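Example 5.3 — Leucine dehydrogenase
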Amino acid sequence: MEIFKYMEQYDYEQLVFCQDKQSGLKAIIAIHDTTLGPALGGTRMWTYASEEEAIEDALRLARGMTYKNAAAGLNLGGGKTVIIGDPRKDKSEELFRAFGRYIQGLNGRYITAEDVGTTVEDMDLIHEETNYVTGISPAFGSSGNPSPVTAYGVYRGMKAAAKEAFGSDSLEGKVVAVQGVGNVAYSLCKHLHEEGAQLIVSDINKDAVRRAVEDFHAKAVDPNDIYGVECDIYAPCALGATINDVTIPQFKAKVIAGSANNQLRDTKHGDMIHEMGIVYAPDYVINAGGVINVADELYGYNSERALKKVEGIYNNIARVIEIAKRDNIPTYKAADRLAEERIERMRNSRSQFLQNGHHILSRKS
Ligand SMILES: NC(=O)C1=CN([C@@H]2O[C@H](COP(=O)(O)OP(=O)(O)OC[C@H]3O[C@@H](n4cnc5c(N)ncnc54)[C@H](O)[C@@H]3O)[C@@H](O)[C@H]2O)C=CC1
Ligand SMILES: CC(C)CC(=O)C(=O)O
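Solution (predicted structure tokens):
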């Protein structure tokens, strides 16, 4: 991989490699764009097959955060971290504290939170070393685990997409195929079950499947079979790139709406599902609930205010669908347009001589 060439192609600002021999920390912080504000995005801990795969994941996820934060109306830029390691075996206090010191060294250009493989407890350890971390324990007056709020946002966005596809936003009786029933998807299944949807689930973790079957009467299928099941809605809630050349011909769903980041393997796959008439709720618009929630901590956390904003994901998805129809473009392009236009508007309206000079954290009461 030619790193600078890749960074130049998508205009990345910074890539930070963190190595701490004592704790075994190997982390990559990617900062994509800070036009709107400091880069906020979670920390993923994962067993990457190669260093190149980890770098690429950090870069792709960071860029997604720029678009997510912009489309959600947040005054935040986009960044993300990946820690190379097995979250079941390689975590330690030393590792997260060492990582916290690297974040502190960036002096507010990057603020972290949870992602796949990291928890509130991990964020609390990072917080021992830096204030540039969100999603820490409610005991600190913070917002805690973002996953249930992300799930609520996905549920709201799914309803907006269902309205477009089925003429009603009721999910009662709808069959929803959920890929991955981890932190976000478990809470999503709860909302769907309570509304009377029927659930089909898959996960590579058998305990996660068992829990969904027991708690929500979900039907379980093999991980490879989830794409082709008879359903109304496909909800990708595991890792990215599950909308691709292999899976698209299998889809029976009329709506794709889930929490996973980077769901399209490539933009051409967004065009393909558009041509098939599938209503696609763009990933970074529908899954913004978590970041909206943790970002509220920067103003002094108020859960009511945060949830009200998250509810607005319904309108955001409806708006993206409206732009797509108006301009006759796929929804993923409409979402990109929304985000890019906001970033450009803010870039152009900023004056070098009239900046407020305060870090966003200084607004915390
Ligand atoms: N946690 C949050 O607040 C947010 C999460 N997301 C994204 O949503 C997705 C899920 O996040 P979490 O629920 O936090 O993660 P998680 O790690 O709790 O859940 C992911 C689940 O997917 C399963 N899985 C992995 N590969 C699979 C496969 N091939 N087939 C079926 N299942 C598979 C895992 O076993 C796990 O149970 C991720 O892509 C994450 O980046 C996005 C925004 C916010
Ligand atoms: C988990 C969120 C709090 C932030 C993030 O990294 C995301 O939305 O993907």
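Remark. The pocket of NAI (ligand 1) is lined by residues 114-116, 146-147, 150, 179-185, 202-205, 208, 223, 237-239, 259-261, 287, 290 (CB under 6 Å).
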